[in-house]
Amino acid sequence: MFAKIRSSNFIDALQFEFSELNGNLLRAIIRDDSGHVCSQMENTQIREKEQFTWEGLNDLPYGRYTLTLFQGSEELNLSLVKRV
Description:
Blueprint: E1 3-5, E2 9-10, E3 13-18, E4 26-32, E5 37-43, E6 51-55, E7 63-71, E8 74-82
Parallel strand pairs: 2-8
Antiparallel strand pairs: 1-3, 3-6, 4-5, 4-7, 7-8
Protein backbone atom coordinates (compact mmCIF):
# COMPACT_ATOMS: atom_id res chain seq x y z
CA MET A 1 0.00 0.00 0.00
CA PHE A 2 1.53 3.31 -1.06
CA ALA A 3 -0.94 5.58 0.77
CA LYS A 4 -2.89 5.77 4.01
CA ILE A 5 -5.89 7.97 4.72
CA ARG A 6 -6.13 9.56 8.15
CA SER A 7 -9.87 8.92 8.35
CA SER A 8 -12.35 7.35 5.95
CA ASN A 9 -14.96 9.85 7.21
CA PHE A 10 -14.58 13.36 5.86
CA ILE A 11 -16.40 16.70 5.71
CA ASP A 12 -14.60 18.89 3.18
CA ALA A 13 -11.06 17.47 2.85
CA LEU A 14 -9.11 14.19 2.83
CA GLN A 15 -5.66 13.77 4.36
CA PHE A 16 -3.19 11.24 2.95
CA GLU A 17 0.24 10.00 3.98
CA PHE A 18 2.39 8.46 1.25
CA SER A 19 5.09 5.78 1.30
CA GLU A 20 6.70 3.51 -1.28
CA LEU A 21 6.04 5.84 -4.21
CA ASN A 22 6.84 4.55 -7.71
CA GLY A 23 7.31 7.83 -9.55
CA ASN A 24 5.90 11.24 -8.87
CA LEU A 25 2.46 11.31 -10.53
CA LEU A 26 -0.53 10.62 -8.30
CA ARG A 27 -4.05 10.47 -9.68
CA ALA A 28 -7.13 10.23 -7.45
CA ILE A 29 -10.80 9.76 -8.37
CA ILE A 30 -13.83 9.86 -6.08
CA ARG A 31 -16.89 7.97 -7.33
CA ASP A 32 -20.37 7.73 -5.83
CA ASP A 33 -22.24 4.45 -5.26
CA SER A 34 -23.47 4.38 -8.86
CA GLY A 35 -19.92 4.73 -10.23
CA HIS A 36 -20.15 8.33 -11.45
CA VAL A 37 -16.98 10.41 -11.11
CA CYS A 38 -17.68 13.14 -8.53
CA SER A 39 -14.19 14.61 -8.17
CA GLN A 40 -10.68 13.96 -9.42
CA MET A 41 -7.20 15.39 -9.07
CA GLU A 42 -3.65 14.87 -10.28
CA ASN A 43 -0.53 15.91 -8.42
CA THR A 44 3.11 15.65 -9.47
CA GLN A 45 4.64 17.25 -6.36
CA ILE A 46 4.12 14.45 -3.81
CA ARG A 47 7.13 12.87 -2.14
CA GLU A 48 7.53 9.77 0.00
CA LYS A 49 6.61 10.14 3.70
CA GLU A 50 4.75 13.33 2.85
CA GLN A 51 1.28 14.27 4.00
CA PHE A 52 -1.11 15.79 1.49
CA THR A 53 -4.56 17.33 1.98
CA TRP A 54 -7.13 17.20 -0.83
CA GLU A 55 -9.33 20.19 -0.08
CA GLY A 56 -12.44 21.53 -1.77
CA LEU A 57 -14.65 18.48 -1.30
CA ASN A 58 -17.39 20.43 0.50
CA ASP A 59 -19.56 20.50 -2.65
CA LEU A 60 -20.04 16.71 -2.58
CA PRO A 61 -23.37 15.56 -1.14
CA TYR A 62 -23.33 13.50 2.05
CA GLY A 63 -23.07 9.76 1.47
CA ARG A 64 -20.77 6.87 0.57
CA TYR A 65 -17.97 7.13 -1.99
CA THR A 66 -15.10 5.08 -3.39
CA LEU A 67 -11.68 6.67 -3.64
CA THR A 68 -9.35 5.20 -6.26
CA LEU A 69 -5.68 6.18 -6.10
CA PHE A 70 -3.37 5.52 -9.06
CA GLN A 71 0.39 5.75 -8.61
CA GLY A 72 2.64 4.22 -11.23
CA SER A 73 1.22 0.78 -12.01
CA GLU A 74 -0.45 0.49 -8.59
CA GLU A 75 -4.13 1.09 -7.88
CA LEU A 76 -5.71 1.40 -4.44
CA ASN A 77 -9.47 1.47 -3.73
CA LEU A 78 -10.79 2.81 -0.43
CA SER A 79 -14.31 3.35 0.89
CA LEU A 80 -15.21 6.81 2.17
CA VAL A 81 -18.16 8.39 3.96
CA LYS A 82 -18.93 12.11 3.80
CA ARG A 83 -20.51 13.24 7.06
CA VAL A 84 -22.02 16.40 8.44
